[in-house]
Amino acid sequence: MDAVERAAALREYAEQTASCTRCALASGRTQVVFGSGSPTAELMFVGEAPGFHEDQQGVPFVGQAGKLLDRLLEGIGLTRADVFVANVLKCRPPGNRDPLPEEIASCEPHLFRQIELIEPKLVATLGNFATKLLSGRPAGITRVHGQEQEVMLGVRKVLLYPLYHPAAALYTPSMLKVLEADFARIPGLLDRALDAPPPRPEPPAETVAEPQAVQLGLF
To answer: Torsions phi, psi of 19, nearest 5?
Structure first.
């Protein structure tokens, strides 16, 4: 799929997602916050869920945490136009509470479809929920931030890079130094991911087995 086809496919999927009613959050949202940025981004950021301002504007990370994300990107020579930013949940939880397991389960197919269409080489998770979902491991962000790992997302191998959520630095100023240090490694990780050879296609299986559901360790 070339860049034009990828952009068209992502646009079409955004239109489909705009009317999603897979979970109860649909009844309280102003709009679906699909995600924004380059449809051919090599680097994708995945946060937790939209907040008040995101719900109003339909764009992820537009509040104070979003302004800090912009500053962190600028510090490594990038802008929002160079990356793609999305959340695990596409609708705002009431009062900005934590996502519920059933909401994550309902919404995660949207995120995995976005990753499939964009084909990023490096996925940076922001905070606990995105990190646990995409790593498939229960370890919290305090233990794994700044530690890259290769994971399979769908049929593609990507480099996953857990980061603290920018909101953490708004409440704990000392966390900003940690975020800046972790962000400083992104250009090198992106170069590494881009230099990695493409995965070999799996040989066809002799028999087709029924797929088994994989239980992700979210908590």
So the answer is: -110, 20
Residue 95, C-beta contacts closer than 8 angstroms, at least 6 positions apart: none
Strand positions, DSSP E, the chain:
36-37, 43-47, 84-87, 122-126, 149-153, 156-163
Q: What is the pTM of this model?
A: 0.88
| Spatial distance between the Cα atoms of 153 and 51, rounded to a whole number of angstroms | 26
Helix (H) / strand (E) element for 189: namely helix 186-195
What pLDDT was estimated at residue 199?
53
Q: Check residue 143 and report its DSSP letter.
A: H
pLDDT digits (tens, 9 = 90+) for 190-212: 999 888 765 554 454 443 333 33
Residues in the chain: 219
* Whole-number average pLDDT of the chain: 89
Buried b or exposed e, range 38-61, using 16+ CB within 10 angstroms: bbbbbbbbbbbbbbebbbeebbbb
